[in-house]
Amino acid sequence: MGKLTNFKRSLWVFHASGGSCNACDIEIIAALTPRYDVERFGIKLVGSPRHADVLLVTGAIPRDFADKLRRIYEQMPDPKAVVVIGCCGTSGGVFYDSYNIAGPIDEIIPVDVYVPGCPPRPEAIIDGVVKAWLKIEKLEKELEGKKG
Ligand code: SF4
């Protein structure tokens, strides 16, 4: 993974929770509290996927949420990245093979970064967001090259 050398702009993040137990969601909120204060780096939670660069997804995805998750992803402008927070979204976690689960998130939408843990610590979530940021910067450079 490359090194983030310059922040050209802030990074806006939308958070979607599927069938989460809420512990992963609480760890995301913890990353925003004064102890970690990710907003000082320009990482900000937004209320609409239409304004977001990065989608954070928590929890296993129930069947009736799979289409909603696809629509959330499709509403995000390019370039964009998806970060799965926690084992539930990666593999199903404690809900693995449940009749009501649509499958791992990467079978529903493309995933760029996996943050393991149950729940992962805020430091790991911040690391996952920075990895997504690197990917977006790379995609932006590729798009600029094509315009060229
Ligand atoms: S990974 Fe663990 S903490 Fe996160 S939603 Fe699943 S059960 Fe809860």
Automatic annotation (TrEMBL):
Its cofactor is [4Fe-4S] cluster. It comes from the Archaea. The keyword NAD applies. It holds the Pfam family Oxidored_q6. GO terms for molecular function: 4 iron, 4 sulfur cluster binding; metal ion binding; NADH dehydrogenase (ubiquinone) activity; quinone binding. Keywords: 4Fe-4S, Iron, Iron-sulfur, Metal-binding, NAD. Gene3D superfamilies: 3.40.50.12280. Residues 21-131 form the NADH:ubiquinone oxidoreductase-like 20kDa subunit domain. InterPro entries: Complex_I_20kDa-like, NADH_UbQ_OxRdtase-like_20kDa, NADH_UQ_OxRdtase_20Kd_su. PANTHER family: FORMATE HYDROGENLYASE SUBUNIT 7-RELATED, HYDROGENASE-4 COMPONENT I. Belongs to the complex I 20 kDa subunit family. This is NADH-quinone oxidoreductase subunit B. The lineage of its organism: Archaea, Methanobacteriati, Methanobacteriota, Thermococci, Thermococcales.
